[in-house]
Specification:
The chain is α/β, with parallel strands linked by helices. The model has no long low-confidence stretch (mean pLDDT about 95). The protein folds into 3 domains: about 5-105, Arc Repressor Mutant, subunit A (Orthogonal Bundle); about 110-185 and about 235-300, Tex N-terminal region-like (Orthogonal Bundle), CATH 1.10.3500; about 315-440, Nucleotidyltransferase, domain 5, CATH 3.30.420. A 5-stranded mixed β-sheet has the order 6-5-4-7-8, sandwiched between helices. It is built from 22 helices and 8 strands.
Amino acid sequence: MDIIQILTEEFSVRRDQAENVVALLDDGKTVPFIARYRKEMTGALDDQTIRRMALRLQALRNLEARKEEIRNAIEGKGAMTPEIAKALENAKTMTEAEDIYRPFKEKRSTRGSKARERGLAPLAEILMAQDARTVPEKAAEDFVDEEKEVPDVQAALQGAMDIIAEDIADDAKVRHAMRDLYQRFGTFVCVAADAKQESVYRDYYAFEKPVARMPGHQLLAIGRGEKEGFLKVTITTAEGLSEQTCTKPYVKNTSPCGELVRLAACDSAKRLIVPSIIREVRNALYDDACQKAIRVFASNLGQLLMQPPLKNTVTLGLDPAYRTGCKIAVVDATGKVLDTTVIYPTPPQNKTREAAQKLTALVKKHGVTAISIGNGTASRESESFVADLLPELPHKVSYMVVSEAGASVYSASELAAEEFPEFDVSLRSAVSIARRLQDPLAELVKIDPKAIGVGQYQHDMPKNDLQTALDGVVE
C-alpha cells in the first residue's frame, strides 16, 4: 500500500504534508509539539487533524503487517497464485484480508474436514462439475466404504455436499456480497428475552430498524440490554436473498448434480455464512457507534476543560448533601484553602438559620464574592438556600451550579491525600468544587477523564480507544 497517498486522499492534504507528519511522528515527536513548533513542515495542520492522521497511520501499518503475515502463511503452504497476491495487495480493510486468508487457515474439525478425511473430495468435484449426464447416486457408489465410515450412497453425497458448503463459505467474493447485502438491506431486529419482565429497555422489546439507518445511541443501549439479559438481537433480510447470494455464483443448471450443489449452497448460507456475517456486521456497527460516541466524549471533555476561569475571586465551594450536611470550603484567588466547615440547611436537619449564620460569617471574614454549588444530591435545595441568602449578605455575591462529576474520585485519590492530608474526604470534594469555578482546567486535569462524566455508555467503550482519545484532549 502507498500509505502516504491514502493519508493524502483521506485527509485532503498535500503529499508533502502527509510525508512530513509521518516523518515527525516516526521521529518520536508528540502531536502538540508538531502542531505548535513544526507548522512550516505540516502546512499549519491543527492538532486534531494530526492526531487523527497518527491514528490512521497506525491502523494502516497494522493492516500492512497483517497482510504480510497472511502472504507469508499462504506462500508457506505453497498455495500463492497471482490472483491471490493481487487480491491481497488490493485489500483495503482487515476484514477483506482475513476473507482472503480464510480458506488457508488451520480449521478445527468440521463436517467438511471429516468428509475430506474420508476421501470424498473427488465426489464433491464431480458434483461441482454439474454434468447433466452424471447420476449423483451412481457416482457416489464408488466412495462407499465402511472402513472410512461412509456406509451408503446417501452418506457419501452428504459428505460431498458438506465439502461444497465449506468451500462456498470460504469464498471471499461470496462473503463480501453477503456482507454488503446485510449492511445495505438488512433489518436490525430486537425482541424481549422475557416480555413480562419490566426493565428500562422496554422500548426495545419489539424493535426493528434498517441496519443502514441504525443510530449509534440505540445500538449502545441495545448492546447493554443484551449484555444484561433483557434483549435478544439479530439481523434479518428478505426471505431467500441470502440463499440466492450463495447459489447464484455456483449453480450452473438444474441437473441432479446442480440441485445438490444448490442444496449445499443454501446450507452454506444458513449454517456457515449468515451467522458469522451477522456477527461481523453487528461488530462493525457497534465499533462505529463506539467511535462516534468517543468523539462526542472527547468534544464534551474539551468544552468542559476549556470553560473560562473566574479569576481574582475568593470562592466558597458547597458540596450538597442531606443527612451528612453540606460541606463548605473557602479558597482564595489562587485556590489556597482558607476555611472549612459543615452546615445542615437541607432535610432531615433543616437547620436553615444556623447554616445562614455560618455562611454569612465566612463571607464577611474572607471577602467571598462567588459561591460554587455542586450539582449532585440535594443540589436543588442547596441552591434555593443560597439564593434566599444572597440579599442578606453584606456585599454582592454571585453563585453558580457546577458539575461535581469526579469530585469524589479526586477526593479519595493519592493526589488529594497528598495535597490535603488534614482534611476529610468530603471536605476535599468541597475544595474541588470551589476550584472548578475558579479554574476548571487546572482542577479537572487532576482527575481521570473517564470520571468527569463526559457522556453516556462510556463504561461500554473499548477502554484503550476511549483513554487514548480523552488523553489526547487533555494533552
